[in-house]
Each structure stands twice: as structure tokens, then as C-alpha cells.
Amino acid sequence: MKAPSTKSISIGELELEAKELRRLILRTTHRAGIGHTGGSLSEADILVALYFRVMGGIDPSEPGKATRDRFILSKGHATPGYYSALALRGYFPVEALETFDELGTMLQAHPDMHKAPGVDMSTGSLGQGLSCGLGMAHASRRSPELGSFRTFVLMGDGELQEGQVWEAALYAGAKKTPLIVAIVDDNRVQLASTTDEAVSVAPLAEKWRAFGWTALEVDGHDMGALVAALKEARELAAYGPVVVLARTVKGKGVSFMEGRYEWHGKAPDDGQFEAAMQELQS
Amino acid sequence: MKAAAMISPRSAFGMALVELADANPRMLVIDPDVCTSTQTALFRSSHPSRFIEVGIAEANAVGIAAGLAACGFVPWVSAFAVFLATRSCDQIRVSVAHADLPVKLNGSYGGLPTGRGGATHSAIEDIAIMRSMPNMTVLTPADASETRAMTALSLRLPGPVYLRTVRCELPALFGESHRPVPGVAVCLRPGTDLAILTEGMMAFKALAAAEALAEEGIRARVIHFGSVKPIDRAAILAASRECGVVLTVENHSRIGGFGSAVCEVLAEEAPCRASILGFPDVFLESGDDDAIFGKHGLDAAGIAAACRELLGARTR
């Protein structure tokens, strides 16, 4: 297990963590024979930046600490990435990933807050996380003794096709809700096609700004830029809702998975696993 | 026992929130723009800082409640039963019931009485939907006093609750001292010729029917189930074994609701002659509440007729 303090971790070290995270994702879905590999690889750098540098007050030895920043995986299918990040950060042993999606596991197909340590909200039906995050942001504002904890909500770009997201966006913009940071893992690919082929959600920044949000755009695989943007978002959230639009690549890091919808909900077979791990050796 | 004027459950709920506010400082009220209808406007006036208006957006309302509940608050979402149970069904299922959070749902305008709202606004599927969700408690108070007591009870229960309150004024059945318990039905009238099992506002109609049957020498037991989930299995089994004939009556579709819940118990443990009286498998229509209830046999006369038919069927 890692030590809880990560304040001094460098960008180079974060990049190494992200590489290890990608290897864990592939091991997890390969072993399980199932799982959402593509969207887990696209969110990997975002999760490392959040859990190793940006989120405040988190402590793997005390996952329920009242003052901690919260995280909601609204794209709840991307659990191989989420659980791998929590394991790397020390919420539970990396070996637990071997039980992913098995009967009796704490690592359910979609996150269960009552089973997996470190999971702040149960999710799995797309579009619901941002509303829950607004509730947490309200709770933070109504509980000043908790130190203005922030709530980060990670959504996919395809998920933005769900109407509830825009109910939540409209509300937060109109009310200038503070302490909430939405993040879009803008990997441009959904289950059965590219997002543009399905229903384009562009232009993203203009939409969110029109709804009253501060929108930051960043390369979701540039660790230095990502950490800077997420930290800036965390600060700006003191004043109102902030969204970080992270441009990413579905399947990032494995050439034959990148940008391909076929890898949305698929695990690598033995040969594909070997080839992918080759690419992820440093 | 016995109390004053007729009060609607929706009003009793609104008043109860105001009463409970000081003793429950973590309680909040979330409103998707129906507070003057569901009567949470009373709370908006008395405790404006604990009232959250989200606009016409039930899904977002439920999600915000879930997030608040995950951080130690006890939020009510008070909305029209039909839209709460159907439009935000998925949000209730995943963010509230699966997450097992203490979100309290006030399904106002339950059943037919919706202010002549017709097919789209009548909520005759909500009990079926809500009781099928794991972790959910489903309460259907029979009058104003029980509504008040169940509003307080909902706050004491650790998990999600669906409290179904109707819009119309109802006669008082219970006194202020009534303390409903989840999973415990209340026998309102003794009898052994048959048992009439009711949920919510149908209790007073069943009592009137039993009154009429008594004049014919038929002694009907009337049992009110203010707690549809958990359901009082013992009361159902006793009704079956001691009366031998059971009629269920509900302000809801015959499919999947209270009658279905009763028949699940009967079929498994004590089969007897039983019938479900509720709305048939149709969308309701515009018109006067009593006229529509009457059309479907959901008034005292219809309940009594259904009882006679059941008893006749047994003797044949």
C-alpha cells in the first residue's frame, strides 16, 4: 500500500502511476474476461491526477472522513480504471482487483458505495452523477465545519446525451452552485459508434458556458496540464460551478484499442493482452 | 379518539414538516415546482433556508436528494406521485434505493384524486413500482393523523421511504395518539365472515361497506395496511385462516399493487378465496373523483357488492 501523503509527488512520478494504472486495467479486464477497457484507459490520467494530487483531505486509511473531497464516477461502467486507481492509492490491496465482477466481490461491475472502500456514491445508470454531486456540494456548503470539501463528478462525453445532465447543469448555473467540479472524459467514442456519429455533443465549452459554468479545456493525457487545470478548477469552484473538459482518447495507450468503439465494453483475449502489455512497458 | 374537521393527507403532510423541523435539523425539503400543490409551501414559508427549489426537474431533484443524504442530511422530495414514480423511477432505483440512502419521497396526489387531472396525472402504478424496489419502505396513510405520524416515522427509519399522500380530504379514523409501525396492520373492525384488507384512503370506504354488510348479518373484518412494504404477513394469514375469504381494496391499479402484495402472501402460505378490488388495466379519465371511483366499484357500495359476490362464490 502507498503512503497516504502524496503532496510532493512529481509530474513524472504521476505519469509512472498512470502507466501502472493502465497495466492494472488490462490485467483486471483480461482476468475477468469482461469489463469496460476503453473508457477506463481514457480516464486513467484524470484519476491519477485527482487521487494523487488534486483531491483534498482524502485518506485511504479513513475512506469515510467527513471533510474529504468526494468523487463520483458518473460513467459508472468504467470501474476497471476506478478500482485500479483506488487500489493504487491504497484503499484496498491491488490483489483485490482479481475479484473484479466475480460473485461475492466488493468490486461490483458498477460502483457500490456500501461495498468498495473509497467509493463515495453508487452509480451505474448514466446521467445521474452530476445531480448527486450537486447534492454533495449543497451538503458541503450547509456544513461549514467540514471545510468546504469539493465534489468531483466524472462523466463521459456520450453520457452528456442524457437529459438529466442538463437538468443538473441548468440548475447549478442558475444557482451559481459552488464546490462542484464536473469533468468530461471527452474521448469521442461511445458504445456503438463515435459520439459524432451517434449524436454530437459539440461544442462543449460553449454549451457549458451558456449554462452558466466556468469551462476549462485541457489535454486529458498531459499530466502536467491536467493537474494544473484540475487544481485551478478546485479553486474556482469556491465561486460557482466549474467543468473541466478533458480531451482524451478512448483506449489510450494501446494502439489497437485507441479510438475504437469496439473496445468500449470488451476485455482483451490472451494475445491482445500480451500485445497491449508490451506497449505499456516503460 | 376521533377528531375534528376533514383534512387531506397532503395538508397534514405539509403541516407535519413544519412541526418536525426543529427536532430534525438535518431535514430538508426539495421541490420540483409543486409546493403549493403538495403543501410543502408551508415549509417554504416557515424554513426558507432549508427549502430547495429545483424547478420542473424530478430527476435532478432526486439526485440532489441522494447526494445530500450521502453527506448526512435527510431530504424530502415532495412531488406528484405519478411523476416521482415514473419520470424519476430510474433515479430513485439507482441513486436512492440501490445506494440505500435516507431520502424520503412524498408521493403526493397518490391514486385517482389529482384535482381532475385525468389519465396522465393519476398515479395508479406507483405502489407497484415502489414496492418492487429493494430497500424501499412504502407507507399509505389512511387519514390526516396517520399521515402526520408517518411523516415523523419516515424520518426515524434509516433507509429510503415512499410516503403516499392523497389530495382529497378524508374523515378522521385515528386520533393524535396513533403510532403506526412498519409491517403492522391495524384492525379497524372485528369480524369473521370475510376480511376486507385496505391501503390508504380506502379504509373509510371499507368501514362504510362493512357497516352496510352488518345490516345484512355479514360480519366483515376490516384491516388497514398503512405499511404496504413491509407488509403484515401475520394479519394476512390470520384473515385467511379465521375468515376464509379476503377482499383487498386499493386506490391503485389491480396489477402489482397492494392486492398483489397480499396475494403473494396468501398464495405462499395460506391460500383462500380472494379478490383484488382496484382500478382495472386501463388509463383513468377526466371527471369527478367520486364518479370515477364509483364507476370502478371503489366506493362503499361497490366494496359491499364485491364482498357479497365473494361470499356467494364461496357458498356455490
Helix content of chain A: 40-55%
- Counted up, domains of chain A total 1
Which spans of chain A have pLDDT < 50 for at least 5 consecutive residues?
none
- Give helix and strand order of chain A, one letter per element, not per position: HHEHHEHEHHEHEH
Rounded mean pLDDT score of chain B: 96
Spatial order of strands in the largest sheet of chain A: 1-2-3-5-4
Which superfamily, in CATH terms, is the homologous superfamily of chain A?
Answer: Thiamin diphosphate (ThDP)-binding fold, Pyr/PP domains
Main interface pair? A-B, 35 and 27 residues
CATH superfamily of the largest domain in chain B: Thiamin diphosphate (ThDP)-binding fold, Pyr/PP domains
Overall number of strands of chain B: 12
What is the helix tally of chain A?
Answer: 9
Figure out the total of helices of chain B.
13
Q: Write down the CATH topology of the largest domain in chain B.
A: Rossmann fold
Q: How do the strands of the widest beta sheet of chain B line up side by side?
A: 2-1-3-4-6-5-10
Explain what this protein looks like in three dimensions.
The complex is a heterodimer of chains A (282) and B (316). A five-stranded parallel β-sheet of chain A has the order 1-2-3-5-4, with helices on both faces. In chain A, α1 (11-32) runs antiparallel to α2 (37-54) and α4 (129-142) packs parallel to α5 (163-175). The model of chain A has no long low-confidence stretch (mean pLDDT 96). Chain A contains nine helices and five strands. Helix content of chain A is 40%, strand content 10%. Chain B has two domains: 9-165, Thiamin diphosphate (ThDP)-binding fold, Pyr/PP domains (Rossmann fold, 3-Layer(aba) Sandwich), CATH 3.40.50.970; 186-315, Rossmann fold, CATH 3.40.50.920. Chain B has 316 residues and is of the alpha/beta class. Chain B has helices at 9-20, 35-38, 41-46, 58-70, 81-86, 89-98, 126-131, 144-156, 202-215, 233-243, 258-269, 289-295, 300-315, and strands at 27-31, 51-53, 74-80, 104-108, 137-139, 161-165, 186-189, 194-198, 220-224, 227-229, 245-253, 273-279. In chain B, the strands form two sheets. Chain B has a seven-stranded mixed β-sheet with strand order 2-1-3-4-6-5-10, with helices on both faces. A five-stranded mixed β-sheet of chain B has the order 7-9-8-11-12, with helices on both faces. Chains A and B meet through α4 and α5 of A and α4 and α6 of B.
